């Protein structure tokens, strides 16, 4: 099970963590990952000056917003779940 924790501390909340959470919920539904990904709110992660903060597995990301979360989710979640790197061009040999 891959855990995504999104900070809902006051600074991140004011910077839009609720919209990020809503987008992550939609992505989990869209990719039908609810059996393998769990979404949690988190208290302050001590990156308050860096924008909305979240963790995907053990990796921490800051400055996330409603626009950037989709690309980050697609790259990190698939990479961590399946070892698939989505940011490299296809290599056909
Ligand atoms: S409120 Fe989110 S890191 Fe502090």
From TrEMBL:
- The scientific name of the source species is Pelotomaculum thermopropionicum (strain DSM 13744 / JCM 10971 / SI)
Q: What is this protein called?
A: NADH:ubiquinone oxidoreductase 24 kD subunit
Q: Which InterPro entries match?
A: Thioredoxin-like_sf (IPR036249)
What domain of life does the native source organism fall in? Bacteria
């Amino acid at each position: 099970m891959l855990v995504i924790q999104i900070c809902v501390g006051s600074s991140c909340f004011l910077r839009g963590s609720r919209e990020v959470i809503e987008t992550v919920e939609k992505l989990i539904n869209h990719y039908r990952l609810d059996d393998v990904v769990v979404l949690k709110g988190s208290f302050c992660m001590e990156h308050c000056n860096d924008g909305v903060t979240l963790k995907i597995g053990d990796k921490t990301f800051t400055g996330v917003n409603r626009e950037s979360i989709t690309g980050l989710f697609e790259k990190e979640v698939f990479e961590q779940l399946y070892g698939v790197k989505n940011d490299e061009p296809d290599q056909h040999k």
